[in-house]
Structure formats: structure tokens, C-alpha cells
Amino acid sequence: MSETAGFNIDDVINVTSLKGDEEMQEPKVEQFLSKLRRLQQGKRSLEDELREIKSVNKSMQMELGTLQTEAYKLEGIHKEKEEMCRKLQIQCEESEQESSRQLKQNQKSEELLEQYRCEIQEFKLKHRKQRMKFENQLHQLIEQHKNLHSVFTTERLPDEIKSAENMLSQLLSTEQMKLDQLHHLNEELQNVRQEKQQDTVTTETQEE
């Protein structure tokens, strides 16, 4: 570009106007041809440079298209990941809430089981005391009946026997009632244990 910048149309005009001077005309033609060759070389260089720029521009356009396509794909993947993360976060929160509920339910079941254990122990203790009392009363009655001839008259003996039988029947009825209550408590305790086992199996299945 710098070499061709010195070319002027006036040089061509001057060459044609100096026909009478042969010694001056020949150098002008040579200069014109030299400048023309430099101009042609500059033109070819510019054309080569232009082709190279077009080739680079085409490559860059293709690379830009590829990058844009990749960016769209990555954006789609990013949105999918965000949605998946949101769903996992919701599931995690739900699992934590369910675990908290199960923990509270297990604590409540443990407290209920402990309460039933205490009640059963209390009923057993009461039953044992009542049985001991009943046995003592029975032994006393037996001893009294052994000595009826020295303590009671023959006329009072049937009434005393009937009274003893009534007392024995009441004691047996009380004992049976306590046994029924104890059996009922045992059934409730078994039901609570079964419910707790089912909750544990359900929790383990959900975690898997």
C-alpha cells in the first residue's frame, strides 16, 4: 500500500506529453511500468489478504454458530439441573418432615409402652397382694372351720359356711376381673408393638 501510494495520474500525462524528447521519455515509461508492477503486486496482496480475512471470518462465524448451539444446550441442561435440584430439595424436605413425624410417633409409642408396662406391673403387684390376702383369709377360714365345734354352735354353722362361700366367691370374682384387666392390657401392649414394627418397616421401605 505504501509503495503504490506514490503513483499519480499526472505521471501518465507527462509521459505522453514528452514525445519530442527521447532521452526524457524512456525513463518515464520505465518508472510507470515499475509503479504499475508494484500496484499489481499490491492489488494481489490485498486480494490475498481479503481472501484470508474472508476465510477467517467464515471460520469465526462457524465457530460462533457452534458456540451458540453449545450455549443453548448448556442453558437447557442448566435449567434441567435446576429443576431436578428443586425437586430433590422438595423431596428432602418432605423426607425430613416424615422422619420428624415418625420420630415423634416412635417417642409417643415408647412413652405409651412404658406406661402400659408400669400399669401391668402395678396390676401384677396388686393381684399378688390380693392373692396373698385371699390365701391368708382362706387359711383362716379353714382353721376356723376346723375349730367350728369349739367356736360356733351347730345352729350357726350353715350360716358361717354360706358366708365363707360368699366371701370366697367374691374373692374369686375379683381375681378373675383383675386377670381380665391384665389380659386386656397385654393385648393393647401387643397392638402397640405391632403398630411400631409396621411403622418401622414402612419407614425403612420409604428410605430405600
UniProtKB/TrEMBL annotation:
PANTHER family: SYNAPTONEMAL COMPLEX CENTRAL ELEMENT PROTEIN 1-LIKE. One of its GO terms (biological process) is synaptonemal complex assembly. Belongs to the SYCE family. Keywords: Coiled coil, Meiosis. Pfam families: SYCE1. One of its GO terms (cellular component) is synaptonemal complex. This is Synaptonemal complex central element protein 1. Residues 29-144, 175-202 form a coiled coil. The keyword Coiled coil applies.
